[in-house]
From TrEMBL:
GO biological-process terms attached to the record: methylation
Organism: Nocardia stercoris
Pfam families: Methyltransf_23 (PF13489)
Signal peptide positions (record): none
Superkingdom assignment: Bacteria
The protein's name: Methyltransferase domain-containing protein
Gene3D superfamilies: S-adenosyl-L-methionine-dependent methyltransferases, Vaccinia Virus protein VP39
Amino acid sequence: MWDPVQYLAFDNHRARPFFELVARIRAEHPRRVVDLGCGPGHLTGTLADRWPEAIVEASDNDPAMVTAARARGIQAELLDVRDWKPAADTDVVVSNAVLHWVPDHAELLTRWARELPGGAWIAIQVPSAFDSPSHRCIQDLADRPEWRDRLAAVRGQGPEAVAERDHAGPPRTASRHRAGILQPDSVLDPIGYANVLSDAGAEVDAWETTYIQRLSGENPVLTWVSGTALRPVRDALDDAEWARFTAELAPLLAAAYPRRPDGSTWLPYRRVFTVARTAG
């Protein structure tokens, strides 16, 4: 389960890509706007502000996030993104920082492009950090003998992960990080997403951005990844194991991301954006 409070600790860094994504959607009077993976709902409301006449549909597959969104007045539903089907009046679909958790999500994009009405917009943003120093530190630590068996399922190598692959993806009740965050995932580069959606008949605008994020505090990169990439690890460990794992991880991250003389730390973070409009 994700922690909405931890997730919002870096709200400015996480919100900026959302606004830069949505700014490229040129829909004027959409009938229905869908936020897939709405998280705690703090950004969903901005979709309603932009398109006040539209029905805003929101969902997430994490109960804690849905609860947090509902507390903000968002009518969020508990739903796995892979089970979502577009209503006939869906004109805008936004999925921000979600699909990197879903294996083979390119197939979802193809299906959405074909099922949505003509002229509908699909806008997605996915982090592409699996080759970053932070993720390599996590992967290297998880691969040590004392952690290898304990984190096998998280690393995509346990019986759970094998069963999931054999059945074309995790069970519908699985949380979004069950795909094995410590294994390279199915995130594509901008050309890859452009090819997928162009092949489905859509017009595509795809790009990537590396944000140079300035973090502060003790172990800021550890705090950052604790709100996202480390959640599957946290869920797999008990409290004592988690404390030991993060204690071992902290110096690795500190070495990979040295603190500046003023106490701040730079964290480069790459994200891939795709905005497409369906044919018709």
